[in-house]
Amino acid sequence: MSVVTEEVVDSASIAAASTRRRPLWQVALRNPNVIVGGVILLIMITIAALAPLLGTIDPTRIDPASRNKKPGTEITMRMDDGTTQKRIAHFGTDSLGRDVYSRVIYGTRVSLLVGVAVALISVAVGTVVGLISGYVRWLDGIIMRIMDGLMAIPGILLAIALVSIWRAGLVTVIFAIVVPDVPRVVRLVRSIVLTVREEPYVEGAISVGTPTWILMFRHILPNTVAPLIVQGTFLAAAAILVEAALSFLGIGIPPETPSWGNIMAEGRTLFRVFPHNILYPGIFLALTVLAINIMGDGLRDTLDPKMSKKV
Amino acid sequence: MSGDAQKPVLEVRDLTVDLPSGADRPHAVEKVSFTVNPGEIVCLVGESGSGKSVIAFTVMGLLAKALKPTAGQILLQGEDVLQASEARLRELRCTRMSMIFQEPMTALNPVMTCGEQIDEVLATHTQLDASARRAKILAILERVKLPEPERIYASYPHQLSGGQRQRIMIAMALVLDPVLLIADEPTTALDVTTQAEILKLIAELQGTQGTGVLFITHDFGVVAEIAHRVAVLRWGQLVEFGTTEQILSRPQEGYTKMLISSVPSIHPRHREERREGKTVLRTSKLGKTYSSSAFFQATRVVKAAVDVDIDIRAGETLGIVGESGSGKSTVARCIARLIDPTEGKIYLGDTEIAAMPPRQLRPHRRRVQIVFQDPYRSMNPRMTVGDTIIEGPMNFGLGREEALKRARILMETVRLDPNSLDRYPHQFSGGQRQRICIARALAMEPDLLIADEAVSALDVSVQKQVLELLDEIRQRLNLAVLFITHDLRVAAQICDFVAVMSKGRVVEYGPATQVFENPQDDYTKALFAAAPGRHWEFGSFAA
Question: Which of B263, B373, B432 to mutate to test the interface with A (most CBs of A within 10 A)?
Fold first, then answer.
């Protein structure tokens, strides 16, 4: 250490030497869970992005001639210009003759979009409300009671109500999932703000005349980043499941847009004879949620020092 | 125990405990040897990181898995506990050796009554039936001088005071008459008057019982108060081992000399009394009342500070001393307007700021700066030290370059390397961080510097340096300093005036020499009488 040594060497300085704070992402990437979950998720994102290039056809294309074919069957498609084309239906076809493989691949887009959108919107809204609630004391009681109220609304019930008012669609689904999720983020952010605002370094900043908005962004908000990343992953995983459930119940994404939930909903009636309609979207759904959860666990272990399993 | 009364109860021979690889040094404890005889109190004393707690935990067999004793022997009445099986160690704990800890609240189970917790020890280690156990517990509660043993038996830990909880711990430790009691900083978390009682109790009990006590502390006052022999540790090595008299009056090693010379004297330093500076701060009937009201609950009112009248002139240090909960920090935080006072007035120079709204208050904030107790939490870990120091001046419109230039000068003022401004707080030691906090405060060019227990978390040698630095800065800049502390020795050395607080009120207020040499108030007298090692004048040795 080049710091002027104190007259007496203080043992704490030995421990403090040569350690440098690493950026969060570097710390996170040392965890195997984060890597495994992240790789699976990256594959899913690639699939969603490259859906048209992965040997898919129009997922909404109805083909009455080849309904309910088992996986691996070769089917003949009659094109609009009168020609015919042969292709193998890897995941089979559904009761309207639509290609399940194409539907599942395109369904990835919807599911990931819902997951990411819900996580981002809930975290953004929740952070702002949580900061206000934690810092403006007289608003705290009012905001938190409203949040308690929002939390009491079951997402599925809210979705049913919204669908009956508006119409079923992606935006409605995202909104219905975000509403009960926001209070969770608000509570998290508020609790962090309440703890951090009592820290001596925040009081130190107050006493050197730091304006409130700088105080928030420079001293308080950075403490919420790590917990919010973790919370965000769990929100995303849960949102994907809820979207699937809503679509399965027929109150989510309308059938013309394929989503894992509504593919499964359509396969439900013939489940015993043609399980593939449920099996393949189910595998994708489970794998994606598992990947996000594994990554979330890994992030929590690395980013939240209280959870780390060190001696 | 007959026959081996002369043999030591505990003999530690060449003990070495390894630290996990990647630690700052290879051994937590290295080749340490000492003995504890029956009826003797041996103090292990050293600064933080010296390995004193590691020794205690090794003896008890409670060492964390990452630490491994690799050499040496620990003989408890001749039996090597390092070789003992887990089952044998369980047998030995409580029956032959037991331990009390620093924080009695966390050492006790909050959901069991105190009686049940002591009962657990007896049920595990003895064949006594329930009524015999109960009788034994009530007897030991009486012996540790707890009032109404029956009521205490049925009380939960949170219903007792800190001192009473520590007595429960002692009762639990001594109920089976162990030959060795290990006390790991048992009074550090307690107030000075409670500390005095607990120290007296430990000395009394071990005297009548003939128990050997291994007492771990960082406080030389406590050492002077109770120790028969003293072992001084540094970085896991034994520096010096001898009788209390030898170590405290005729230390041989440079490190011991330096440590003992760093202990502040309880007798105030004489300074010429001059009251010519202009008054920087004056409070009049300052008060802070906390009231909590919630739906369906009665309003609870706590008067944290009542009618506090103090004043400080430029170039003077006023100390506020008192035990925890006396309201001394509340007063400091009211003056810094980190909390809003509920009654009274605060005059900064001629400006009254007690009820000033935040917007008007902002220009006055720079005139009062505060240094906090915990050097590890008083700086934003995500900001460089330079950014921390210049934050204040930049808030008031100074350019970054100019502010950094001033920060470099300030770093020199607090005797740190100006080139380390781009480092982060965790790269500094506790004492260095406290210096940086002082630099941050000075960057605002304040009239009044508040030091809220600013040296309490520091080791005695570092504490001495920070105190000297504060005093030097006060003189050079003609600063008014408000020094909040629970440590009477520190107060005696740094303060010109002292206000003693108890239960939110100032009970005695006057020049330090007068208050220390001739206290008038009963509480002040009791407080000073309780200061450990007050009869011992720690000498100054050239290292």
Answer: B432
pLDDT value, residue B2: 43
Q: Which of these, B415, B427, B262, B126, lies nearest to A21 by C-alpha position?
A: B427
Question: Best interface-test mutation with A: which of B67, B371, B391, B444 has the largest number of A CBs within 10 A?
Answer: B391
Q: What are phi and psi of B44, to 5 degrees?
A: -95, 115
How far CA A287 is from CA of A32, A119, B177, B395, in Å, comes to: 17, 18, 61, 51
Residue ranges for chain A with pLDDT beneath 70 = 1-22, 304-311
Position B85, amino acid: S
Q: Take residue A286 and report the two structure tokens written for it.
A: 């489970």
pLDDT tens-place string over residues B269-324: 776 666 677 889 999 999 999 887 666 667 778 888 999 999 999 989 999 998 88
CA B121 to CA B124: how far, in whole Å? Answer: 5
Phi-psi region of A111 (alpha: psi -120 to 50; beta: other; left: phi over 0): alpha
The minimum CA-CA distance between A38 and chain B, rounded to whole Å, is 27
Q: In 10 A of CB B540, how many CB atoms?
A: 11
Question: Rounded to a whole number, what is the distance in Å from the CA of A161 to chain B's nearest CA?
Answer: 33
Residue type, B382: R
| Alpha-carbon gap: A208 to the closest alpha carbon of chain B (Å) | 5
Task: Say yes or no: B397 contacts chain A, CB-CB below 8 A.
Answer: no
Domain residues of chain A, as ranges? 6-68+96-308
**Per-residue pLDDT, A308:** 45
Q: Are the beta carbons of A262 and A145 closer than 8 angstroms?
A: no
Exposed e or buried b per residue across A113-132, where buried means at least 16 C-beta atoms within 10 angstroms of its C-beta: bbbbbbbebbbebbbebbbb
Per-residue pLDDT tens over the stretch A161-219: 887 888 778 888 899 889 889 999 999 999 999 999 888 999 999 988 888 888 888 89
Q: Whose CA is closest to A206, among B493, B368, B278?
A: B368
Written as one string, the DSSP assignment of A95-120 is TT--BHHHHHHHHHHHHHHHHHHHHH
CA dist B190 and B449 (Å) reads 27
CATH number attached to the domain at A6-68+96-308:
1.10.3720.10
Residues of B within 8 A of A12 (CB-CB) are 48-49, 429-431
ipTM above 0.85, yes or no: no
Output Rg (C-alpha) for chain B, integer angstroms.
26
Q: What is the mean pLDDT of chain B?
A: 88
Judging contacts by C-beta atoms under 8 Å, the chain A residues touching residue B429 are 6, 10, 12-13, 16
**Positions of E strands within B155-308:** 180-184, 212-217, 229-234, 237-243, 279-292, 300-308
Per-residue pLDDT tens for A223-248? 888 889 889 999 999 999 888 888 88
Model pLDDT for residues B514-539, shown as the tens digit of each residue: 898 889 999 999 988 888 887 777 77
Question: Per mean pLDDT, which range of B72-76, B300-304, B363-367, B522-526 is the poorest?
Answer: B300-304
pLDDT at A14: 37
The answer to whether the Cβ–Cβ distance between A209 and B365 falls below 8 Å is yes
> Is the per-residue pLDDT at B5 higher than 70?
no
- Give the contacts of A302 (CB within 8 A, at least 6 positions apart): A27, A28, A30, A31, A34, A308
Q: Which residue has the higher pLDDT, A96 or B232?
A: B232
Give the Cα separation of B316 and B479 in Å (integer): 7
Closest C-alpha to B259, from B248, B267, B268, B269: B248
Q: Which amino acid is at B418?
A: P
Consecutive H or E run containing A179:
helix A170-196
pTM: 0.80
Q: Long-range contacts made by residues B294-297, C-beta under 8 angstroms, separation at least 24?
A: none
